[in-house]
Amino acid sequence: MSTTVNPRMPQTIDEADIPVWSHRPKVTPKKVKGPIRNLKWLVMAVLLGIYWGVPWLRFDRGPFAPDQAILIDMPGRKAYFLWFEIWPQEVYIVTLLLIVAAIGLFAVTAMLGRVWCGYTCPQTVWTDLFMTVERWIEGDRAQRIKLDKAPWSVSKLGKRLAKHAAWLFIGMMTGGAWILYFNDAPTVVPEFVTGQAGFAVYATVGFLTFTTWLMAGVARENVCMYMCPYARFQSAMFDQDTLAVTYHTARGEKRGKHKANESWEGRGHCIDCRQCVEVCPTGVDIREGLQMGCISCGLCVDACNSIMDRVGLPHGLIAYDTERNVELMAAGKPRKWNFFRLRTVGYLAVFAVAGMGVLYGLVSRAPLDAAVIADRNPLYVRLSNGDLRNGFTVKVLNKSTSPHTVTLSLTGLEGGEIVVPGHEGEAAPSVEVAPDAVAAIRAFVKLAPANWKGEPIDFEFTVTDPTRDLSVSVPTRFEGPTK
Amino acid sequence: MAENRKYEVDPVTGSPIHPYTWDGIGELETPPPRWWVLTYAVCVLFAIAWWVAYPAWPYIAGYTKGVLGYSTRADVAEQLAAAKAAQAPMNDKLAKLDYAAIAADPELMTFATAGGKALFGENCAQCHGSGAAGNVGYPNLLDDDWLWGGDYATLEATIMHGVRSTVDADTRQSQMPAFGKDGILTREQVDDVAAYVLSLAGTAPADAAAAEKGKAVFADNCVACHGDAGQGLRDFGAPKLTDSIWLYSGDPKAVAAQIWNPRHGVMPAWAGRLDPLAIKKLVIYVHGLGGGE
Ligand code: SF4
Ligand code: SF4
């Protein structure tokens, strides 16, 4: 990577002149038109549409479960995602899902560069939305710079108030949509409006209103520069075949102002109009080379292409390109694309395998599960007729949305007899388990002394749901007096 | 800062390089961003405000209390009061209903059992064990054998008035004579009757002849309380002798010792110490341990 050194940079600085904090100039991006901008509008509309629309999707799960397609039910400790339902002990699936998503992100980044940052990251999407609103209210770059410099006046105050009010409103809608993922949307919205929703709801909305305003309105590119860890470590995924917004230095330099009809001989194609810098949402001068601040949004590509149109030169002085291609073109050779290389194929392979694992985990999830906790204090009780008795707590998890009756039985305990209080006299006690619930069933197991050989006996509790033909066996052991 | 040193500027980053270099490696003096500096300053101010507002600094015999008067102890007291208030509806219901009605309500049973378990751990576990399995001389509450009876009403009476309590007139009283020590029976007779008692419980006696002789001794001395067939008598708290459960061990020597000079356990009367609701919860808990009748 070539470093272009800014010739205006001083060589030394006095100790006293080193600032306490860095003076980052305020970024006031200019409006831009072009195919990439249009693509960004489309992506933004789709993503915001998903965010605000998805909680309203309904999905029929029968009478005992919520009918919201995507819902995280905190009090009920369940998460619903279309056909899938996740219990707290299955959060590892979510962890796996996040790992899969991360690997997918790595694959995309290695191939296409920071497309996540430039198009889909919520910070980018919301900042873009906030900037659009700002432009509507305060005008484009030149007007905004003028307004920033202008002394306070009624009209300036009015514009500022309108802008922040609009931002806060968007922030509130953002926070407001967030809670819809945790509550039944059609119920909570009227509750929210009429002041009947819970404290957590109002606190969440208030907090997210504030953070949305702060991040998308005030902090903006600083989030990418100082807060985002992904911005920092994705250079590890970059190599010379990774797509990035690139300034073709060989073609552009030596830059300089250009008058109409002037010859292009002996100079570069960059007319130093600084349009690429002015449209940049992070204030980067891409002509200095690939740098951390560039989120690969491509707006400077649109800006420069429109300038190239105007001066009658081909597009692509700034373009999505790879480092290898920059070198090839500088040497006058044709471009070479190399998307599928060891690194990206490796990422894709891991992505596919891990994704399949998650899918398998979700699909093969059993609707009936059980756990057995044996009493440890005491291990056994001697009954008056000489029998030995062990106490157990059998937890039966009904992970389906309808009630089911299960029967308990013993496997591998010769002469063992099971007694569930309230179900005395049933050889295989049947207990009903509520939908989406865990039943803790107290079960005593009795064994006649003739069957006790002085050694703990390993056996299994078998929980059967005859109507659904499901059964789970949980190993445990029977304890008694040992020599 | 005596002299105003010149810092070289790093051409790539534009940051000053600190003059101290090590083997030609220098450190960049990149100034932190403004928001960072300001946030840091605000944090410092916040910390100072915190010291003023909340308990913060210890000194030898105490600590600075803070102007807000906050205390974690007061917090706990408040939370306890809130927890009590939250339990009140269940407690009221529990206090009003009788045992049969409570047993029919699974929610109340769960609540009462949980409460009973905590009370048991605080008050009963010292003798009966934290798992209620008892010990030599302290009855096991898990099994199906009861000296005085294992239904709700009887359990309640036992817990309220205790056994051989010295302070409760309604306490359960039972006294087995010291047959050997007081000279009622000879050493040989005591051994014989012990062998016979063990045979009642199904243990084959080591000395069948002694057991046979003991039968007569038993008929003359023991049947009044323990019954013709050793079936026991709950009215007197006289243990059943035909089962496999022994309060003071089923070892032949231990049985003989108990006949010679019986030990008598004491259980406190809880009526004055625990309120009726707590006793109710304990009764439900003990009844549910596996031997309730
Ligand atoms: S927009 Fe294009 S021509 Fe204008 S300064 Fe940037 S690179 Fe040069
Ligand atoms: S340099 Fe270009 S691609 Fe990078 S952030 Fe700025 S406008 Fe977007």
UniProtKB/TrEMBL annotation, chain A:
- One CC-aspect GO term: plasma membrane
Q: Which NCBIfam families match?
A: ccoG_rdxA_fixG
Record-linked InterPro entries = 4Fe4S_Fe-S-bd, 4Fe4S_Fe_S_CS, Cyt_c_oxidase_cbb3_FixG, Electron_Trans/Redox, FixG_C, Ig-like_fold
Which residue windows are transmembrane per the record? Answer: 39-57, 91-112, 165-183, 195-216, 345-363
Stored PANTHER family: FERREDOXIN-TYPE PROTEIN NAPH
Entry's SUPFAM superfamilies?
4Fe-4S ferredoxins
Report the GO molecular function annotations: 4 iron, 4 sulfur cluster binding; metal ion binding
Report the superkingdom from the record. Answer: Bacteria
Keywords carried by this UniProt record? 4Fe-4S, Electron transport, Iron, Iron-sulfur, Membrane, Metal-binding, Transmembrane, Transmembrane helix, Transport
Q: Give the protein's recorded name.
A: Cytochrome c oxidase accessory protein CcoG
Q: Where is the 4Fe-4S ferredoxin-type domain?
A: 260-289
Question: Which species is this record about?
Answer: Zavarzinia aquatilis
TrEMBL record, chain B:
Q: Please report which protein family the annotation says this sequence is part of.
A: Belongs to the CcoP / FixP family.
What's the record's note on cofactor binding?
Answer: Binds 2 heme C groups per subunit.
In which residues is heme c 2 bound? M176, C222, C225, H226
- Residues holding heme c 1: C124, C127, H128, M267
Species of provenance = Zavarzinia aquatilis
Is Iron found in the keyword set? yes
Gene Ontology MF: a single term? iron ion binding
Domain Cytochrome c: residue ranges: 111-201, 209-290
Q: What is this protein called?
A: Cbb3-type cytochrome c oxidase subunit
Please state the gene responsible for encoding this protein.
Answer: ccoP
